Amino acid sequence: MIMSNNPEYHPVSKARSANHQEDTCFSLTKEVFKDLVRPRVCLGCSLKDSSCKVPPSIWRFYRFALMKEPLQKKKREECHYFRPYFTYWLLFSNTLIMITALGYYSIAPFGTSFKQVNKTLLRHNLAYENVTYEQQENFWIGPNYEDLIHFGAKYGPCMRTDWLLTALIEQDKLREDQTGCCVRDDLNVCWQTHKTKCKSVFATFHPGKVCGLAQDYCSDEDLRNNNSLWDGRVTDWPRCPVPDRANISKDLFPHLACEITARPCCVGLQGECVIVSEEECQLRNGYFHENHTLCSQVHCVKHVCGIDISELHFIYRIFLPTYISSGIIQFAFVIPFIFFVVRSVEKTYGFWRTAVIYTLSGCCGTMVSAFFTPYQPQVGAGGSIFGVIGLHMARDIVEIRNWLDVRNLARQHRTKKTLIFLFLALLSFIPGLVPWIDNWSHLGGLIFGFLLSICLQSHRISRDDRDWGIRLTFRLLTLVIVILLFAILMFTFYLKQDLFLDRHWPSYFNCIPFTENLCQDSCMELRPRVGD
Fold first, then answer.
1. Which band of pLDDT confidence, cut at 50, 70 and 90, is reported for residue 220?
2. pLDDT at position 78, please?
3. Do the beta carbons of residue 378 and residue 153 sit within 8 Å?
4. Which pLDDT value is given to residue 501?
């Protein structure tokens, strides 16, 4: 910048003067210099004394800035600097949760499918067999998805009573009604299974019997005397173990006098239960129920979720996934975005506006993902990140100076800048076409972030504005749309679960099968039961 050679207007000569008015002008001149490095929206807010003589070069630069980008009305709040406290909280909470997850849970194998784990072990029938287990891989270098669900990830069956999963569990119970107790002749081993799997020549299959369970030897007198509890299917029988096997006749009740070597084990993400030994259950990374004999006596979905879904504890799964990262790679993408982008947004919009837009965009993105892909675990700040992108797109719309002047809309709308953000948003959906990146969460966060930003814009509506009625109506209409969309989303998620039950197109938005096996292991749909 070229300064004037006239000493009357030179800031150094003004600073050396003893006149109080000149010292004041020099102070204001320094304020102008400070304003030059601030955002252009705040230029001129320090020029309160019109009698002060400011160097002409500074005025020329200031007028050039005003001509290059028209400013909104100079209000006090437009030049207010907000401390990014919410950004600091996001950085702290995301880092703390990531360290806790990596320290408490083990890191899953790296990949996008399932890893085959083979091991030869002594099974419940006292025979050495080769057992195969499929372990879910994690593309982001972090805990496996069973642990992430325990930690609070989005997972449809943990957020509602899932009709399809409940139907599968009922089918498992019907198959369990056809089981019996397979007892070895030496009474050293017995386990609950189907007749086709009791193949040993040294074992006898007892149909309609449950290993270690009978009404006559029930330890609870009230349960033993209630005949109505024992008349139905074996899966409806109460859990009442035999107190002492030594006093039971081995000839009359061999299924009660034998040693039970296999008990229910909850494996996988879909509430599946198998009756195996404790060693095999540990190999499958399952939960062994040592005090139960039938799968119908345990609640594997509750074990997967870590909570009882019949209560309202699932509500935290709407908020918490935004602060959890799937692994180190995802964490490395989220933290720089929060530090550079969210921090700059909070400096302009303040703590509460930024917190509401960031949090609610993530929550709505989680609900959209839970509706379209309920069986795919999802964590991460993708919905909130796209909500911030929607904020930038909405900011150019709400900064239109005169909504009544239709001829100036194209010029004042900053069409070029809006199209750039829209192009970046569309470009960000491309990585979501491969497994383990949730595009539905991104789309939900973008839409709700855009709408919420219009509702919570920083420009105050005043009756002195020419178009205050249109602005107020537009805000209220946008707020009604947000509430209506969220209500429809919650209604369909809980009460219309079969809306897309037989349609596969929602999964194509998250993963396009470019190859035959690319999307098979992305957990978007229920997998076949493994069995024992």
1. confident
2. 45
3. yes
4. 66
| Residue 384 burial by Cβ neighbours in a 10 Å radius (0-12, 13-18, 19+) | buried
Collapsing DSSP to helix, strand or coil, 260 comes out as strand
pLDDT band at 437 (very low <50, low <70, confident <90, very high): confident
Across 164-185, b (16+ Cβ under 10 Å) vs e yields bbeebbeebbeebeebbbbbbe
Exposed, middle or buried, 278 (CB in 10 Å: 0-12/13-18/19+)?
Answer: middle
8 A C-beta contact, residue 263 and residue 292? yes
Helices in 228-296 by DSSP H: which ranges? 254-257, 278-283
> Residues 388, 345: contact at Cβ < 8 Å?
yes
For residue 17, the SS3 value is: coil
Q: Rounded to an integer, what is the distance from CA 59 to the centroid of its chain?
A: 51
Query: Are residues 354 and 400 in contact, defined by beta-carbon separation less than 8 angstroms?
Result: no
Q: What is the CA radius of gyration of the chain?
A: 33
User: How many degrees, rounded to 5, is the angle at CA 269 between CA 281 and CA 289?
Assistant: 35
Question: What tokens does 425 get?
Answer: 């948003």
Tokens for 257, please give them.
Answer: 């006098």
Nearest by Cα to 166 from 497, 447, 486: 497
Closest alpha carbon to 135 in 107, 114, 118: 114
Q: Write down the pLDDT at residue 386.
A: 94
Contacts 24+ apart (CB under 8 A), 344-351: 345/388, 345/391, 346/82, 346/84, 346/85, 346/86, 346/87, 347/81, 347/82, 347/84, 348/82, 348/458, 349/82, 349/391, 349/456, 349/458, 350/82, 350/458, 351/82, 351/83, 351/85, 351/86
Angle made by CA atoms 88, 90, 91, in degrees to the nearest 5: 65
> By three-state DSSP, how is residue 183 classified?
strand
| 104-144 per-position pLDDT tens digit | 998 998 887 778 888 888 888 888 888 888 888 888 899 98
- What is the DSSP code string of 290-304? TT-SSGGGS-HHHHH
pLDDT reported for residue 532: 59
pLDDT in tens, 193-210: 999 888 877 889 999 899
* pLDDT tens for each residue of 456-488: 876 666 566 666 777 788 889 999 999 999 999
Structure tokens at 193: 């299974």
DSSP 239: -
- For residue 135, the 8-state DSSP code is E
